[in-house]
From TrEMBL:
<keyword id="KW-0238">DNA-binding</keyword>
<dbReference type="InterPro" id="IPR038709">
    <property type="entry name" value="RpoN_core-bd_sf"/>
</dbReference>
<comment type="similarity">
    <text>Belongs to the sigma-54 factor family.</text>
</comment>
<keyword id="KW-0240">DNA-directed RNA polymerase</keyword>
<keyword id="KW-0548">Nucleotidyltransferase</keyword>
<keyword id="KW-0731">Sigma factor</keyword>
<dbReference type="InterPro" id="IPR007634">
    <property type="entry name" value="RNA_pol_sigma_54_DNA-bd"/>
</dbReference>
<dbReference type="Pfam" id="PF00309">
    <property type="entry name" value="Sigma54_AID"/>
</dbReference>
<dbReference type="InterPro" id="IPR000394">
    <property type="entry name" value="RNA_pol_sigma_54"/>
</dbReference>
<feature type="domain" description="RNA polymerase sigma factor 54 DNA-binding">
    <location>
        <begin position="277"/>
        <end position="435"/>
    </location>
</feature>
<keyword id="KW-0804">Transcription</keyword>
<dbReference type="Pfam" id="PF04552">
    <property type="entry name" value="Sigma54_DBD"/>
</dbReference>
<feature type="domain" description="RNA polymerase sigma factor 54 core-binding">
    <location>
        <begin position="78"/>
        <end position="263"/>
    </location>
</feature>
<protein>
    <submittedName>
        <fullName>RNA polymerase sigma-54 factor</fullName>
    </submittedName>
</protein>
<keyword id="KW-0808">Transferase</keyword>
<keyword id="KW-0805">Transcription regulation</keyword>
<dbReference type="InterPro" id="IPR007046">
    <property type="entry name" value="RNA_pol_sigma_54_core-bd"/>
</dbReference>
Length: 438
């Protein structure tokens, strides 16, 4: 048996997309929010002396928030001044309220173990070992901390945190503190009949205590967090005039990029080959950045315009219904990849006269019904919420009963789907929705 090995040369021509660094950056720029884009351009200007950045000048026509009486609310007054940390806030109170004694030194020691949520993270027995103080002295020091603001600070667990807040609230229900102290587990597990029997009170009284506890904060120190990210700059604006919906691009929300031609010409006169090479590279960087930012704006505008075109009823009707819409619907019309559409809608916002909405919120899967009418998942969620809102809270609807009611309306969903939508809407299960109000 002969073994023959033959060699031959063949030439093939193939076409493939090379993921260059510039292409990767272009994809990243599209994914940026407006705030991230501003930071990216600012950083680019630090590396390129030929870039001239004109800061954004965005003004919004969105109406100011109004109260129930119709008066305007100065929402800036609602934002707390959190420049001071929780630790600094506690230290200031300690120096103002307590004399310079050994007990105060123990208080200052324990404060260092208060976490950002306001909880004490060190065991008192360990603190006794570390400081040399007696258990009574450390307990007294902790008591002084728990008398400081915010109410609930210095607690060692959630139960103690809620008890501290209740103790300092003159409007707390009469039985709230004792129920938290003796029946915290039963209250959490909603064993209200047991609580009512133990204290010889009615179930509605237990309900009032539970409702009150819902108003307390489980993390008293969180109020001292950062206020970063409290605002957004919409990328698009929608105006409705005479039943006509128009989309505008808010490119003024991003910095304007200009080329410093005079500086370029002055540097070019040097004739130095290294300088000329440097100028060429930086000019190319400028051209790429300007083009990429413009392409980003065009993509977001085109995607947003197509979304608005398909969701006209949302802007024209009072109920603001959402029609079934998926990424593929937009990508096929604009002849772009679905991933491009996804990047163009995530973290991008659209401004209307009645609110600001993220572009991706206009996408919703389609569900078929017995009547052959297509419904979006948003429609089903809204209907599910309506059924729960109108239920008898003494006998809340189970997931299976909700399935039956939706099926009766021609909406085919499973029990598992109802449970998933209920969780997405942050609606508790039927056992946790039960109330004992008189």
């Amino acid at each position: 048996m002969k073994f023959q090995q033959q060699f031959s040369q063949q030439q093939k021509q193939t076409q493939k997309l090379a993921m260059t660094q510039k292409l990767q950056q272009s994809i990243q720029v599209l994914q940026f929010t407006t705030e991230e884009l501003v930071d990216f351009i600012d950083n680019a200007s630090l590396e390129n002396p030929l870039l001239d950045i004109i800061p954004p000048n965005y003004t919004s026509s969105y109406s100011k928030p109004r109260s129930s009486t119709g008066t305007e609310i100065n929402y800036l007054n609602q934002i707390p001044d959190n420049q001071i940390s929780l630790f600094e806030y506690l230290i200031d109170q300690i120096h103002l309220n307590y004399r310079d004694t050994y007990l105060r030194s123990l208080v200052l020691y324990l404060v260092e173990y208060i976490d950002l949520n306001g909880f004490l993270t060190i065991d008192l027995e360990e603190a006794v070992t570390q400081t040399g103080g007696t258990p009574i002295q450390l307990l007294d020091a902790l008591t002084l901390i728990q008398q400081l603001d915010p109410a609930g600070v210095g607690a060692r667990n959630l139960q103690e945190c809620l008890m501290l807040q209740t103790e300092r609230d003159n409007y707390a229900p009469p039985m709230a503190y004792i129920i938290l102290e003796e029946c915290f587990t039963e209250l959490v597990e909603r064993k209200w009949e047991t609580i009512a029997k133990k204290f010889a009170i009615a179930l509605p009284d237990v309900q009032k205590v539970f409702d009150y506890i819902q108003t307390l904060t489980p993390t008293p120190g969180s109020a001292f967090g950062s206020t970063d990210g409290l605002y957004i700059i919409p990328d698009l604006t929608v105006k409705v005039t005479d039943n006509q919906v128009t989309v505008f691009s808010n490119r003024s929300g991003a910095p304007e990029i200009k080329f410093q031609q005079n500086y370029f010409e002055q540097m070019e006169k040097s004739g130095d080959p290294e300088v000329l090479k440097y100028l060429k590279e930086k000019k190319q960087d400028f051209e790429w950045l300007k083009k990429t930012v413009e392409q980003r704006g065009d993509t977001i505008y085109n995607v947003g315009k197509e979304i608005v075109k398909r969701q006209q009823d949302f802007f024209l009707q009072k109920e603001h219904p959402i029609k079934p819409l998926i990424l593929k619907d937009i990508s096929e019309v604009l002849d772009i990849h679905e991933s491009t559409v996804s990047r163009a809608v995530n973290g991008k916002y659209l401004e209307t006269d009645f609110g600001v909405f993220e572009l991706k919120s206009f996408f919703s899967q389609k569900l078929s019904s017995e009547e052959g009418v297509d419904r979006s998942t948003n429609d089903v969620k809204n209907r599910l919420k309506q059924l729960v809102d109108s239920e008898d809270k003494k006998k809340p609807l189970s997931d299976q009963k909700l399935v039956t009611l939706l099926n009766d309306e021609g909406i085919e969903v499973s029990r598992r789907t109802v449970a998933k939508y209920r969780d997405a809407l942050k609606i508790p299960s039927s056992t946790k929705r039960k109330r004992y109000d008189e």
